[in-house]
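Q: Give me the 3D complex with magnesium ion.
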Amino acid sequence: MKITRVESIPFSIPYLKPLHFASGEVHAAEHVLVRVHTDDGVIGVAEAPPRPYTYGETQRGIVAVIEDVFAEQLHGLTLLEREQVGARLARTVGNPTAKSAIDMALWDALGKTLGQPVSELLGGYTDRMRVSHMLGFDDPAKMVAEAQKVRERHGISTFKVKVGRRPAELDIAVVRALREHFGDSVELYIDGNRGWTAAESARAMKEMADLDLLFAEELCPADDVLGRRWLVGKLDIPFIADESVPTPADVTREILAGSATAINIKTARTGFTQSRRVHHLAEGLGLEMVMGNQIDGQIGTACALAFGAAFEATSRYAGELSNFLDMSDDLLAEPLQIRDGCLQTSSRAGLGIDIDPDKLDRYRTDK
Ligand code: MUC
Ligand code: MG
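A: Here is the predicted complex, encoded as structure tokens.
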């Protein structure tokens, strides 16, 4: 069970259509495949999707920090010493996505070594998650058409609508068009990626009061401390903290400050080990949780699915597990299939996924 090698392989897979949101846009999945090898010949895998405009990590930076800093710290530890791994990686304050991919690859290797699925090792609550689809910026007719297509093809009936544009009427028109088109047959919630001020958010929420929103997420920056507290205090639906809570300590700060009332858990930025801490903390505080998506490919989605299905609170709401549908291809030998609006966990050991070597050869950018 000893870790002998950690690989970080950059790859690039184009998107079928770009995803635009208030803090950035994505045209290609320029991610990093992380592989952890053990002395038993086991290989654990995970994926790191950098989001430079949010956490400051880049594809080159993730490869470099793993090769130059983290790999050496792990050498010789066993797969059971994950708290030791975490403590060593935690000396570096930043780089959440690089650390998380290492953590999840370790769990995959552990599951493979023990012959058990990771989701069951983590908690084993259920074998499926309902899926929520994220709709990037466009005009109302195109966003309704996209939602309709995703609903017909995959049975998805929960949509997270990206908002945060100016004027806010652009986004309000989209949410209204979706509600008018689908009636009460879909769940809708919104995510501003810090695009509005607290006052703009409050005005927009007032105009959308009749649209039966499930949640509002990160509409304005958490650093607008008093403004955000004022906004959250006015709302009668949960306000989700996402990029403002990349660590358990941030969850504590933001919740105690009244800056959020629910939590988005992203395995891409807290791995399995830290996500478990966030889950336990949120559970203890009595908060709603949603499994989020850092615009992961299918490897990252398999990770979010494994974690979300492991606990009651993380599988209660639809998880954001469908961004990979926007990609032109992926690295998995067996693509994930969303059926009847759900994704099913694998019953195989580890994460239950295999990398297709030909696809990796085609999309890796380090050769
Ligand atoms: C989200 O929930 O904000 C956009 C940027 C990112 O890191 O995640 C996505 C979705
Ligand atoms: Mg978000």
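A quick observation: The domain at 3-116+356-363 is CATH 3.30.390.10 (Enolase-like; domain 1).
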